[in-house]
Amino acid sequence: GILTRLQTSAPTVRTLSLSSSFSQNIPSCLWKLGRLNHVAIAVPDLEKAQSLYRDVLGAQVSEAVALPEHGVYTVFVELGNTKLELLHPLGEKSPIASFLQKNKAGGMHHICIEVDDIKVAMTELKKKKIRILSEEPKIGAHGKPVIFLHPKDCHGVLVELEQA
Fold this sequence. Notes:
Blueprint: H1 2-9, H2 20-24, E1 33-42, H3 46-56, E2 60-61, E3 65-67, E4 72-78, E5 83-89, H4 95-102, E6 107-115, H5 118-127, E7 138-139, E8 145-149, E9 159-163
Parallel strand pairs: 1-5, 6-9
Antiparallel strand pairs: 1-6, 2-4, 3-4, 4-5, 7-8, 8-9
Keywords: Cobalt, Isomerase, Metal-binding
Domain VOC: 35-164
Catalytic activity: (R)-methylmalonyl-CoA = (S)-methylmalonyl-CoA
C-alpha cells in the first residue's frame, strides 16, 4: 500500500566521511579562522544602495561612516547571520574609486573572515608566501585590527581578516 511506496521512494541519506589521508593533510595552525563577518560591495551611489536594502528589501541599514584611513564611506546591512558592507569612495585616492572606474555599476569588493589572532596569522601567512597588503594591521570599520590578503594569492578574491 501507501506505506510500502513511501518506504521505497524515500531518499537515502548519505554521510560524508573524511579519509584519514585527507584529514592528515590539513595543516595545524597557531591561529584559527572564524566566521564570515561580511561581504563588501562597492557602490557608485551610496544613498541608492542604502535605500535598496532598507526600503525595498526591509533590512536594518546603518548610517554612513567615513573611514579616512581606508578612503571609504561604509554602511553595514544586517542580515542576521552576517552583514553586507556597502563601500563608497572617500576622496580621489580611494581604492574604491579605482575599483568603480573598472566596474561602473559596482560589485563585490572583498570578503571578511574573523581570526582569533591576527598577528600570529600574519606571521604564518607570510611564511606560506601569502602577500599581505600592509606591514601592520589597520583599525577597520568595527574598531578592530584588519589586514587584507593579496587577491592573486587567494584565487582572485580580496580577503580581509579581522581580529575577532
